[in-house]
Amino acid sequence: MTIPDTIPRAALVTGGAKRLGRAMALALADSGFDIALHYAASAAEAAETAAEIRARGRRVVTLQADLAKEAEVERLVPAAEAALGPVGVLVNNASTFERDEWDDATRESWDRHLEPNLRAPFVLAQAMAKALPRGREGVVVNLLDQRVWSLTPHFVSYTVSKAALWTLTQTLALALAPRIRVNGIGPGPALPSPRQSAEQFERQSGSVPLRRGTSPEEVAAALLAILALPSMTGQMIALDGGQHLQWAPVRDPMDMVE
User: Does the N-terminal peptide bond of residue 178 adopt cis geometry, omega within 30 degrees of 0?
Assistant: First the structure.
């Protein structure tokens, strides 16, 4: 599939230093994009990924920012454009994922998720849209979670942030049409989390209907497919082995109270 020439060949990838963000940044570089590589604390990994992008013959700039601080978020698109030219692709990949529950969530844990997971993607999309040159087209891809189609009461601040980002994805698809398309990717099990052992991850992946989750490479392939499908907007691709289809019996809410 061919990516339309109307999309400027510079991409901003948040959380692009490692894991899924790295895979998407490298795939974009392989497809002819120069990369603005955002990171928060992973400076060494960002430098390594940037070196791989340069080895592919593409330009790259690394940009450090705390996405929970709006003043730092606001600097990203201007810095990317100063180094690489107009941003045609924005990948909102970075997110905070920490456990809190309805009975112990605090204002701090709420803000720690909502600011980087929801507010930052909006601020970045707004800035990209305002800066996109006349006659050009853009694409925003938000990394969601397959759970937005099968909500859980756990990880309450994270879950709310991703469900809201899914709503924002659809809202912006309407607001920014016809020049900018906005879509999402909802991964299921892709890589072990910092809290998981390899055995636990394998058990989780094997529990979904297809008995396998996704991979960084498949997520990157989905990104490129979205870029190459000019009529696709307001959609989410769930790469989860059917996890969002699974059914579980309703539990008495009091069973969750210790």
Answer: yes
Tokens matching residue 53: 């992008």
DSSP state of 38: E
Selecting among 18, 39, 69, 162, the annotated active-site residue is: 162
| Residue-range domains of the chain with CATH | 10-244 (3.40.50.720)
The verdict on whether 39 is a catalytic residue reads: no
DSSP 77-145: HHHHHHHHSS--EEEE---------TTT--HHHHHHHHIIIIIHHHHHHHHHHHHSPTT--EEEEEE--
pLDDT digits (tens, 9 = 90+) for 175-199: 999 999 999 999 987 677 777 677 8
Reported as a single tens digit per residue, the pLDDT across 205-252 is: 777 888 877 899 999 999 999 999 999 999 999 998 778 887 655 444
| pTM metric for this prediction | 0.90
Residue 11, C-beta contacts closer than 8 angstroms, at least 6 positions apart: 25, 28, 33, 34, 35, 36, 87, 88, 89, 90, 91
162 has catalytic annotation:
yes
